[in-house]
Amino acid sequence: MEPGKPSRTALATAFLRALHRVVDDAPPVFDDSHAVHLLPAVQARFLERLARLPRSWTAIYRQRYNGLTGMRSHVVVRARYAEDALAGARQRGAMRYVVLAAGLDTYALRTRGMADAMPVVEIDHPATQTWKRQLLAGRGLDEAAVRWAPVDFERTGIESALGQEPLHQFVSWLGTTYYLSREAIAATLSSLARCSAPGSELVLDYWREPPLFDPAAVLLWGTRVATAFQREPMRSFFTPGAMEALVVRCGWHVREHCAPLIQDERYLTGRRDGLSIPSFAYLLHLERGTTDPLA
Ligand SMILES: C[S@@+](CC[C@H](N)C(=O)[O-])C[C@H]1O[C@@H](n2cnc3c(N)ncnc32)[C@H](O)[C@@H]1O
To answer: To the nearest 5 percent, what fractions of the chain are helix, strand and coil?
Structure first.
């Protein structure tokens, strides 16, 4: 990330979640009713106008081979997957929700004031977190329900943010591994394992470099160029085997390894809006094991 500057890709993913509610078929895969409130006025106005157009005029957004459709599918399905897993983890005893690299995540906003709202800790790069807090304050949105913890994963572990005593918790870590060095990913996974009680759960996504003959390679290259221009270059890709080996080395067990086709089948079957998961986007649902992390 550009030194001292908030993440621009965090804004991009919030925009995609808001766009999903406007252009795709109902019901939404992931209903982020609050993302639009965090967008710049010009983007919010654009979405408002788009919503007023006859549906046939926005058909281009729903074309399967439109890159925006692929990225939007990935962003909304990974958010849905994490919050579905969170619901299960609560039943299994998780006591708080830690949102790693939260960006403009709105879980705390969507659940504030609810009797059964889960305590939320948001961890993010200091510059992004300061920007988000300013956005919330500027829009009169209550930020009191969140415990804020600024951390740069490339520099420090997260024990100081979460406390030394391991808690039974649920953690999501979305849209981030590809922007980090392999060392920072391993250090964060290990550090997270140390402050998570056995049974704690973690959902993360990672990207695999597709072969050149795969149409998704074009989308990935376009995204790499776009994020590099935004000063958030992509740095780490994994094969499923390499990622599994890494998480196990860092103290986690695999509950589910969710390949793109499984995501398509579970969340997008029967939809007519062209949403489809790019073949490089994998999801992992992990559980804290009882062994000590080695990495
Ligand atoms: C694409 S956004 C994802 C935001 C959110 N999780 C989502 O899915 O919409 C990437 C996030 O990674 C965070 N990030 C990138 N590099 C980081 C670092 N070195 N330390 C902490 N956070 C970092 C950014 O601040 C940003 O919030």
So the answer is: 45, 15, 40
